[in-house]
């Protein structure tokens, strides 16, 4: 149970640190960039919390999370390759 609480703590700290970053550096960003950043962070931390919940609640949780991370990694590699080829 300690691992689960620690992982949730990491999620809450990441949200708080990003919000503090946007509040303290708001003069460097436009309002649109700040809103995009906040929405992006909330979407990612929501996915993070869902994965933690799945990992610790379901019997097949670790397998599901590993598969999700593997597929996400492949998609990101494909996207990066596409961006690099597009810019060349």
Can you characterise this structure?
With 88 residues, this protein is mainly α. The protein is 88% helix and 0% strand. α2 packs antiparallel against α3. The relative contact order is 0.08. The mean pLDDT is 86.
Q: Quick one: overall form?
A: flat
- How far apart lie the N and C ends? 49 Å
Seen as an oligomer or otherwise, the chain set is: single chain
What portion of the residues fall into strands of 2 or more residues? Answer: under 5%
Q: Give the % helix.
A: over 70%
Report the uncertain regions.
none
How many helical elements? 3
Produce a short descriptive summary.
The protein is an all-alpha fold.
Output the keywords.
single chain; 88 residues; mainly alpha; 0% strand; flat
Architecture blueprint of SSEs:
Blueprint: H1 2-24, H2 31-57, H3 61-87
Helix pairs in contact: 1-2, 2-3
């Amino acid at each position: 149970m300690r691992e689960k609480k620690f992982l949730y703590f990491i999620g809450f700290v990441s949200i708080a640190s990003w919000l503090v970053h946007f509040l303290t550096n708001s003069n460097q960003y436009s309002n649109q960039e700040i809103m995009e950043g906040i929405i992006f962070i909330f979407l990612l931390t929501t996915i993070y919390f869902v994965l933690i919940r799945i990992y610790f609640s379901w019997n097949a949780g670790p397998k599901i999370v590993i598969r999700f991370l593997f597929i996400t990694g492949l998609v990101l590699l494909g996207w990066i390759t596409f961006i690099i080829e597009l810019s060349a």
